[in-house]
């Protein structure tokens, strides 16, 4: 994979070997794609191997039915030559709200990358049609309910029907046929993927990567506004940390709050003193999920898995269960738990910023002590968002279900986990923004200036925070919060 800037236009090149998570985001945001020539060669060889294997042994979905119909031979069944199209039509049902274009484009990018890995046995022309679909600016309409973490069958079957011109794309309009037909041998290989679930997790992961970095900087602003004791982040503490991620977080905060002034207390409340554990644990889980997603973006996990070499006559397939996204569900759960656990300290910092004993101001950072409410209601807004995050943190990986006449007796529900991770990211934006509004107001009321602090990042974030309105009278704070939400999602 790489960024091709030939002819003055950027384009993501899909090679089936590597696809950065940032590139998936770029495609989601509208970047065009192309297939590397070697990927087409790899897919052609995989198809040749699958054909050769099917001549000597049954191959699931290619010469048999699927699910509970896996014992049905397509060669003996009536209409076996049109089974692929029937499979796509029957599996294309989904329900609920249509997903946004950005999510669907990310799904198409992931699926293209997986096909380019060359383990599906699919016709390379289908991958080329997928490129054309992405670059056309049109996307299939995919709805929220359908996948259960064992391949996103409805989403990809619906994509196939859109490529065939049978289903209108998102937003309506006349469907454009990118393929003339769909061979039976290519139907299951195309839909046997959790590309939508992976794509949703990637988009949420990348948003959280920026958000958690900014949330740490906001916490440092709160720390400075409350004259925290930086001993909690000292090199000795970092050396004694129980994990490299916590040690890294201690060093991060040590640098951020350097020169923030004399500490007001010998020992701070947990919401300040345990910042390395809070943000280190989140960083650790974020990195683990990112590594897994990086692998899944180029993993040929189609069932059956086509392997061997046509050149050496070692053609074969392996029927397997790698499509069961158990690890993905578990990794998302772990990150959700880390983010959910951190929320108690987010709320406590917001609470203490409203406390005169910690900031030296009036209650709720109000203009005066005459009973004004100041930022009082922002704490309620943050608590409402935290309620959403904690609800999302209930482990999805404990769910299961038995389907298809008992042929499929478990499910990871990673699809639910990925959707909830996006919901968590959205809610965390509000929590971090509330803390930013409060920390910025406290620092402003104290007369603190960015140049007082040693850390370049601290100064940058504080300057951004001080662009928030300076008016501390009781007024409608929706605009302040919306501006803060933009600030905590920006890159610095």
UniProtKB/TrEMBL annotation:
Entries under Gene3D superfamilies matching the protein: Fumarase/aspartase (Central domain)
InterPro entries in the record: Aromatic_Lyase, L-Aspartase-like
Record bears the keyword Lyase: yes
The keyword Lyase is assigned to this record: yes
GO MF, one annotated term: ammonia-lyase activity
Keyword tags: Lyase
Record-linked PANTHER family: HISTIDINE AMMONIA-LYASE
Protein name: Histidine ammonia-lyase
Native source species: Arthrobacter cupressi
